[in-house]
Amino acid sequence: MRSGAGLGRLCSTPAIIAFIAIAMALLPLIAPPFWVTLANYIGLYTIVALGLVLLTGVAGQTSFGQAAFVGLGAYTSAWLSTAHGVSPWIALAAGLALTFVVALALGFITLRMRGHFLPLATIAWGLSIFFLFGNLEFLGGHTGMAGIPALSIGTIELKDERRMCWLIWLVVVAALWTMHNVLDSRQGRAIRALKGRLEMAEAFGVDGARLKIVVFVYAALLACISGWLYAHLQRFVNPTPFGINQGIEYLFMAVVGGAGSVLGALVGATIITLLKQYLQDALPALLGTSGNFEIVVFGLIVIVLLQRTRDGLWPWIDRLLPHAKPPPVPDAAPLAARVQPAAASTLLEVRAARKAFGGLVAVNDLTFALACGEIVGLIGPNGAGKTTTFALLSGALAPTSGDVRFRGHSIAGAAPYRIAARGIGRTFQHVKLVPRMSVLDNVALGAHLRGRAGFLRAALRLDRREEARVRAEAARALARCGLAEFVHAEAQNLALGQQRIVEIARALAADPVLLLLDEPAAGLRFHEKEALAALLRSLRAGGMTVLLVEHDMAFVMGLADRLIVMDFGEKLAEGVPAAIQSDPAVLEAYLGGAPT
Length: 596
Hints:
Elements: H1 5-10, H2 13-30, H3 33-58, H4 66-83, H5 88-110, H6 117-135, E1 145-146, E2 151-153, E3 156-158, H7 161-183, H8 186-194, H9 198-203, H10 208-234, E4 236-237, H11 244-257, H12 262-287, H13 294-308, H14 313-320, E5 346-357, E6 360-371, E7 375-379, H15 386-394, E8 401-406, E9 409-410, H16 416-422, E10 424-426, H17 439-446, H18 455-459, H19 464-480, H20 496-509, E11 514-518, H21 526-541, E12 545-549, H22 553-557, E13 562-567, E14 570-575, H23 577-581, H24 584-591
Parallel strand pairs: 7-12, 7-13, 10-11, 11-12
Antiparallel strand pairs: 1-4, 2-3, 5-6, 5-8, 8-9, 13-14
Helix pairs in contact: 2-7, 3-7, 3-10, 3-11, 3-12, 4-5, 4-6, 4-10, 5-10, 7-10, 11-12, 17-19, 17-20, 19-20
């Protein structure tokens, strides 16, 4: 049950992280050695699993190769500290630098892949690095390297496991805190949008390819730190812990705990480690033979979880904890607004644009122009090429030939995030929201280009002033669209019509010059359509230009200044609504013939 507000605040993620910090500071003082050892390994695994939460659970990029990055951290420090007498702390910096370079190279190669090709690629390079560890003689081959020195902080040597426990969990708590900060930021919203919503994210200025690599490298660096701690905890390394089996186990931990939750990494690492310890003792006694039977059990657990709770255990646990009602979004200074171009000047020119998919021509030599401060309707029967035209204007598709010019500059074939930066915002024919993100955060994603805080500033929570302004801007956009009461609701819990209005609010948060609306009135009730029409008229009065695709003829006829009619990819007619309504060619396309 959810009880009072005070208890709810105590169950927030930062509060739980603080509780973990206190508990793990006390554990080495009171727990027996066996439990301290288990805590050390849970901590090491949590660090790696956290990277997978961000990479796989949030960003949707599956990796089976994280154990290889753990090995890079462990072997770099082991070799430098034993063969060359380098300080382990300098060796850590070297390991991070090497991992950065390797992860950057692998990211550029593998993150371009989609579907099953990406996980297969991570298995391939994970195996390659694993066998590299075992075949390099200066790394001790398959025998490994011994004599790794203990870590020390000043005059304090961390020779025993109790002292190492404090260091390991200090790193865990720091990693949990920074990960929570990242996900609660401009960067975090963009990362959440990468999973199945890449087209939408790029339409609001997110450089998806770059952000995937940033996340990939960050996850690799966390794994490297875990490997460095492991090497100086064990004082010995060999290739065995860095193989593909361990990589799969790390992914198990993230999935079991909750691949989309920061605290899921800790839950998964704890459950898998404790269960593995128990099964290694219990299964041989039960089956009368030895072997890695715990892997079979883990596989069955994952199958059951995917059937019963696909989001892992932490979201299920979190529902049992008390939570306070989120406070209202505090007001903050407005973000800098874009200067709208002069009224009636040419804003957009489409010049003989053509888009062919093999032998199918979706848009055929389409030409039209938009003037600043007008509402233009793009109409036509289903399959006329309207949505394809929107894709050409927003950069989702590149024209086969022809040109698209915006404010005097060609944008044909430009990346969507670059077109968004020029001042084009859009909605989609099929709603594209991040379902489990709040309505407020979905709208704040629209203002991505209006913020500047990067990954490091977000991780260290140095972006709070900018973040407050972005959230206040998003709240104002929602209020303008009549959805202020749904600020903290999950987007997936809204009705379809409300979700379409959220998309419009998100586009407004981008402060566009040109607003592309793809069937904005679909699913809206009569009064909601009236409110939408009033909103669009107020935007036009403020100098914004609107191009909308719409099948509700009563709605678009009463709103648009001009109409452009498409049929079979070509422009059929163009003019004011009254003229279009009586155009014989338009009646032929819509009704099969002019009235007699």
